[in-house]
Amino acid sequence: MTFLARLGAPVRGFLEFLGDQGHLVLSTLRHALLLRLDQVAAVLGQTRLQIRFTGLDAFLLVGGTALLLGAVTLIQAFSQLSGLGAENYIGVLMVLIILRELGPLLTAVLVIGRSSTAIAAELGTMQLNGEVDALVLHGVNPYQYLLLPRWLGVLVALFALVVFFDAAALGGGFLVAKLKYSVTFGFYMDSVRQTLSNRDFVATLLKVVLFAGAITFHACHFGLRIRRSQTEIPQAVTKTVVSALVAVFLIDGLVAALFYF
User: Fold this and answer.
1) How far apart are the C-alpha atoms of 223 and 261, rounded to whole Å?
2) Domain ranges, residue 87
3) Radius of gyration (Cα) for the chain, nearest Å?
4) Residue 219: closest CA among 184, 196, 199, 244
5) Are 89 and 77 in contact (CB under 8 A)?
6) Per-residue pLDDT tens for 169-210?
7) Does any domain span residue 116?
8) 140-146 CB contacts, 8 Å cutoff, 24+ apart
9) How far apart are CA 260 and CA 94, in angstroms?
10) Number of folded domains in the chain?
């Protein structure tokens, strides 16, 4: 019985975590549909703040990372395919490596490092200070004022960052292709467009939606579970990062298997 109890405890904890995640998502969606017109302005104001922090404040970090990644990808490819007509595979390499996989995935990882940690710490501090209970006592719905704006903000910002990441990575790749093989911009973009398909756009959009949900609601889950002391905040932040990273990699693998297997 002791062995079974030890074996079942992690399973029970995981199922409880999934149940709480489902509750947060469904409750946020349900309360979003119950928004009154006089509440929309407050929600949009909080959403804009989240978009600014998650998206605008991260543009330089995301752009620099993407530029280097696009350049390094083609440098490594050219070093391995030299003499085999590597310039003919530029579009295939950029689409398969960057646009399909690394673009959405690395953008999500950067957002987890910046935004999910901030959300978990902020909600945890509010919970410790009694601010969440104070909102409820004053008739403010926490799902509408705290969770919904953060979810929408991360969703919009993540979509914009993925587009920007892909564009910057393509720019970095073009610089290398131009210097190495004097590839024209027209040839470069034609090569990319010929490899891209509508399936790639749909898969990327699905990843963005699922990534945004995982990033936001994992952070909300661990942040709102803080009850006793400030020492729980760094623990919640660490759990948020680990849990969100696992979820993002798992989602990425499932979507890849669904669309490309």
Assistant:
1) 37
2) 58-260
3) 21
4) 244
5) yes
6) 999 988 888 887 788 888 888 888 888 889 999 999 999 999
7) yes
8) 141/31, 143/27, 143/28, 143/30, 143/31, 143/32, 144/31, 144/32, 144/34, 144/35, 144/39, 144/43, 145/42, 145/43, 145/46, 146/46, 146/220
9) 16
10) 1
Residue that the structure tokens 């104001």 belong to? 45
Q: Distance between CA atoms of 26 and 24, rounded to whole angstroms?
A: 6
- Output the six-digit token pair for 5: 């109890």
Count CB-CB contacts under 10 A for residue 228: 7
Output the CA–CA distances (angstroms, integers) from residue 51 to 81, 160, 185, in the order listed: 41, 10, 32
What one-letter code names the amino acid at 193? R
Q: What does pTM read for this prediction?
A: 0.90
Residue 181 CB contacts under 8 Å (≥ 6 apart), including other chains: 86, 87
Residue at 29 is within a domain = no
**To which H or E segment does residue 243 belong?**
helix 232-260
Domain assignment of residue 146, yes or no: yes
CA triplet 63, 66, 71: central angle to 5 degrees?
125
| Residue-wise pLDDT tens digits, 137-171 | 888 899 999 999 999 999 999 999 999 999 999 99
Q: Are 201 and 104 in contact (CB under 8 A)?
A: no
Both tokens of residue 60? Answer: 């330089």
Does 39 reside within a domain? Answer: no
